[in-house]
Design brief:
Number of strands: 10
Low-confidence stretches: 1-19, 114-138, 243-253
Oligomer: single chain
Helix content: 25-40%
Strand order of the largest sheet: 3-6-2-7-9
Radius of gyration: 30 Å
């Protein structure tokens, strides 16, 4: 929607710059004061940006299990998921920061073979493989010719978690994995409250628009008379995926290592479209 408005404003500015009569007519159409005779219109985009350290991370922790039946896979998943959620609560993560993102049960088909020619799936965390009998491909009863069949079921339960204490982020990941989480994705770094930062970047954007207008007006032998129209633009950079969850080998007392975390900085920016009336110097 903002892109459409921006394109509309550019068209308006082009019409206004075409002739004083067109500028007057378009000004009346938009309900703003008309441009004085001999004046012109300039529309600029101002941008403001600020680098800030995030104070919160969002990531997903999931449990994937398999079984011979859908019920078996789902029951095994439920048991492990409860343990993972209890572990998250024991770390001090509030209920408001834990939200189920997806629950899925789907069949594992017989054509899901690995490179060694096996049909395989995991059952309670252990790989179960059924060897494929080697037969002639010309045989119409060959498994290579037969349609896929269900050989098991896979259940997945993913939970979105907000980590507000970034110093404990690595510990949280390690604890949840030890509790049974085997699918971890993220994190997205963000600010818990971004209003003050956005207020600052919007002010910077407005100052930038004014600076650019005065610069271009001076180059054209004109000066800024007034602001005719302000359209708020887009805010961006409120969330950034700057780090991946990768376990590193620690040579210290912990034989399994700790999950590292590098939050970096968020580049939060705002934009504003401002239409100015310019007059001769």
């Amino acid at each position: 929607m903002r892109a459409i408005i921006g394109a509309f404003l550019i068209s308006i500015s082009a019409i206004m710059l075409g002739s004083p009569a067109s500028a007057q007519s378009m000004s009346n159409l938009m309900g703003i004061d008309p441009v004085d005779d001999g004046n012109t219109v300039l529309m600029v985009e101002g941008r403001g940006e600020k680098l800030v350290a995030p104070d919160m991370a969002m990531f997903s922790a999931g449990v994937e299990t398999t079984g011979a039946t859908a019920r078996e896979a789902l029951q095994a998943n439920a048991r492990t998921t409860r343990i993972v959620l209890d572990a998250a609560r024991a770390l001090g993560i509030a209920e408001r920061d834990i939200q189920t993102a997806q629950v899925r049960v789907r069949p594992v088909m017989s054509d899901d073979r690995d490179r060694r020619g096996f049909s395989s799936y995991e059952r309670d965390g252990r790989s179960t493989k059924a060897a494929i009998v080697s037969v002639s491909t010309s045989d119409p009863t060959s498994e290579h010719e037969a349609p896929p069949r269900i050989i098991g079921y896979r259940a997945t339960n993913s939970v979105n978690i907000r980590q507000r204490d970034l110093d404990e982020f690595g510990k949280t990941i390690d604890t949840l994995v030890e509790a049974g989480a085997n699918r971890v994705e993220g994190p997205d770094f963000m600010l818990d409250d971004d209003r003050a930062t956005l207020d600052e970047t919007r002010q910077l954007a407005m100052r930038d628009a004014r600076r650019r207008a005065e610069l271009q007006a001076e180059a054209a032998g004109l000066r800024v008379k007034r602001i005719m129209l302000i359209m708020e633009g887009r805010d961006s950079g409120l969330r950034s995926r700057l780090s991946s969850l990768i376990s590193s080998q620690d040579l210290g007392s912990d034989p399994y290592g700790r999950t590292p975390m590098a939050p970096g900085q968020l580049a939060i920016s705002s934009s504003v479209n401002v239409t100015f009336e310019l007059e001769p110097q």
